[in-house]
Amino acid sequence: MKKLPAQRGRVAVIGAGPGGMAAALSVHQAGHDVVLFERYPHARPAGNILNLWPPPIKALRLLGVNTGPLPQLIAATDPAHVQRWVIRDRKPLKQWPKGRATLVGDAAHPTSPYAGYGAGMATEDGYFIGRRLAGVDLSDYAAVRQALDAFETPRKPHTARQSQHAYALGQVFHHAPRALQPIRDAILDRTPLMQKVVGDSTPISILTQLGEIDRAEAHFTALLGLGGTHDTAS
Ligand SMILES: Cc1cc2nc3c(=O)[nH]c(=O)nc-3n(C[C@H](O)[C@H](O)[C@H](O)COP(=O)(O)OP(=O)(O)OC[C@H]3O[C@@H](n4cnc5c(N)ncnc54)[C@H](O)[C@@H]3O)c2cc1C
Q1: With a 6 A CB cut-off, is 116 part of the ligand 1 pocket?
Q2: Ligand 1 center from residue 188 Cα (angstroms)
Q3: E strand or H helix at 173, and its extent?
Q4: What atom in ligand 1 is closest to the CA of residue 118?
Q5: 2-40 pLDDT per residue, tens
């Protein structure tokens, strides 16, 4: 089992949600040692549906995760274990990295569920951060910062757009003034607005992210060719 040898370093990942798990796998594949800290000792049910878009599924597969059983796992959750909590929104952060640390997933861009993409974006973040840290000497502060900034730059506009989009949908679905609700329902039911707003932009977003993953993977594979071999099933 070989990894990229020269730049091996140690990375702490805080939180074993979709973002933390993907980051831990990706950073491990990059050849660094990873310690994953989670405040809860057991996996906790998060809901009864999880929709994952094609880019996070692709990222998970590249990380060696068998995504086949995910729907069955979620379907098998005992409804008594499903929890409810209030959904809160926060404006996107201006900056994710600070020093040698960065944020991924909801910590960076909390996303309400109306786009069905928060876990997906957290998974993508995790995948990309590991790919960015491949070949980086973690004892070199400037190199680490450069990798963290390079990770953040394309992720921030994408995730901000999706989070704002999810927020706007939530407002329309659940917070329209009572007097406007019949008009809203008529527009949603009888006009192509949703198709225009969601249906037309979603394929472009998906294709863009799949392209970003392809580019990251090509770079990673080239690095592996220079320094070692992959240690997972990707
Ligand atoms: C009802 C609902 C439905 C949703 N449906 C979908 C969907 O269909 N598709 C989709 O893509 N997204 C969906 N989402 C969004 C998705 O659940 C979140 O965006 C996703 O869980 C974010 O992942 P994360 O890893 O960033 O954070 P989290 O899942 O919140 O994980 C963070 C982890 O960090 C741990 N932690 C926090 N602080 C500490 C600490 N100090 N030390 C150690 N551990 C710590 C927490 O215990 C937790 O395990 C839905 C959300 C809701 C509420």
Answers
A1: yes
A2: 29
A3: helix 141-174
A4: 19
A5: 455 555 899 999 999 999 999 999 999 999 999 999 998
Residue environment code for 111-133, b if the CB has 16+ CB neighbours within 10 A, otherwise e: bbbbbebbbbbbbbbbbbbbbbb
| CB proximity list for 188: less than 8 A, separation 6 or greater | 172, 194
CB 233, CB 3: distance < 8 Å: no
Domains of the chain: 10-227 (3.50.50.60)
Residue 21 tokens read as: 């798990």
The closest alpha carbon to 124, from 205, 229, 45, 49, belongs to 205
Dump pLDDT digits (tens) for 39-95.
Answer: 988 776 655 567 788 999 999 999 999 887 766 766 777 777 766 677 778 887 889
Q: Tokens representing 150?
A: 């390079």
Q: Which pTM does this prediction carry? A: 0.87
Q: Is the CB of 120 under 6 A from ligand 1?
A: yes
Residue 99: name the closest of 141, 39, 37, 131 by CA: 141
